[in-house]
């Protein structure tokens, strides 16, 4: 399987490098070819895992004022979706070889990166997202609103950013079959390189992808309510259980004062219930 991926990289780089530098004066053609090449290398990645992926529903199209949102199990979600459509994804900036790919090849399809540690990044990224969805020629924008990888049994709370763009939201549901391998990536315990090797040495990566009916903000509906409605749609289709957790708790624990306030509030509510009885 490593051989399959190696051959894929040789074909990809021998085509991508000349296209990237020789077609600099022909941006529209260059973007189109680079988009096809990114889809190609993602196909080689999926082939290296003996991927068996079933896609349901119409293939995404390039249109202005639309954003695609999906539940998130692993960084391979992006690869599985990318082999069908060259999405521009918003993703955490990673170190090492993944970061190198982000800053070179994936920027060619319009991907947007952020750093959780930088508070100013949020404003910059929000502006980039608004600008991206307005352009008709940009690749479709893909966001994983959970903000972290979840174990494909649950969906955690969706961040509202994707639902504040005044755009049509197109839900995508992904469900992996754990018979052959667990596709969940726990980034706190395993590097992405080890995760890929685990997938390559497994029997197969089996999953279903559903492109669901586009949704728009309803009159009187808040972005948070819109996000929850779309989470309902994805959870039902993929057979996932909704839980009221914030995915960012994986990266930062609540302060002692915050926990103390929550405990006090809980104690007060219990006392009120007892008094009412």
From TrEMBL:
SMART domains: PlsC. The chain crosses the membrane at residues 6-24, 36-57. Pfam families: Acyltransferase. One of its GO terms (biological process) is phospholipid biosynthetic process. One of its GO terms (cellular component) is endoplasmic reticulum. Its main location: membrane. InterPro entries: LPCAT1-like, Plipid/glycerol_acylTrfase. Residues 66-177 form the Phospholipid/glycerol acyltransferase domain. It is found in: Membrane. Keywords: Acyltransferase, Lipid biosynthesis, Lipid metabolism, Membrane, Phospholipid biosynthesis, Phospholipid metabolism, Transferase, Transmembrane, Transmembrane helix. GO terms for molecular function: glycerol-3-phosphate O-acyltransferase activity. Pathway: Lipid metabolism. Belongs to the 1-acyl-sn-glycerol-3-phosphate acyltransferase family. This is Phospholipid/glycerol acyltransferase domain-containing protein. It comes from Populus deltoides (Eastern poplar).
């Amino acid at each position: 399987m490593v051989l399959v991926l190696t051959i894929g990289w040789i074909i990809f780089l021998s085509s991508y490098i000349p296209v990237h530098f020789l077609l600099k004066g022909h941006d529209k053609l260059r973007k189109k070819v680079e988009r096809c090449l990114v889809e190609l290398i993602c196909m080689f990645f999926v082939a290296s895992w003996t991927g068996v992926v079933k896609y349901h529903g119409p293939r995404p199209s390039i249109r202005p004022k639309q954003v695609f949102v999906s539940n998130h199990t692993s960084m391979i979600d992006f690869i599985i979706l990318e082999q069908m459509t060259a999405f521009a994804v918003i993703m955490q900036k990673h170190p090492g070889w993944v970061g190198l790919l982000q800053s070179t090849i994936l920027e060619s399809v319009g991907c947007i990166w952020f750093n959780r540690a930088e508070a100013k990044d949020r404003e910059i990224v929000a502006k980039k997202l608004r600008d991206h969805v307005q352009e008709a020629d940009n690749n479709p924008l893909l966001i994983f609103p959970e903000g972290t990888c979840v174990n494909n049994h649950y969906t955690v709370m969706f961040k509202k950013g994707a639902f504040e763009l005044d755009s049509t939201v197109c839900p995508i549901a992904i469900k992996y079959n754990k018979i052959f391998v667990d596709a969940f990536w726990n980034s706190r315990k395993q590097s992405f390189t080890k995760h890929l090797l685990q997938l390559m040495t497994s029997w197969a990566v089996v999953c279903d992808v559903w492109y669901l009916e586009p949704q728009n903000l309803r009159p009187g509906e808040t972005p948070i309510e819109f996000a929850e409605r779309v989470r309902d749609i994805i959870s039902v289709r993929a057979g996932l259980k909704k839980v009221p957790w914030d995915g960012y708790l994986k990266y930062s624990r609540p302060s002692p004062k915050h926990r103390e306030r929550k405990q006090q509030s809980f104690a007060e509510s219990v006392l009120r219930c007892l008094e009412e009885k």
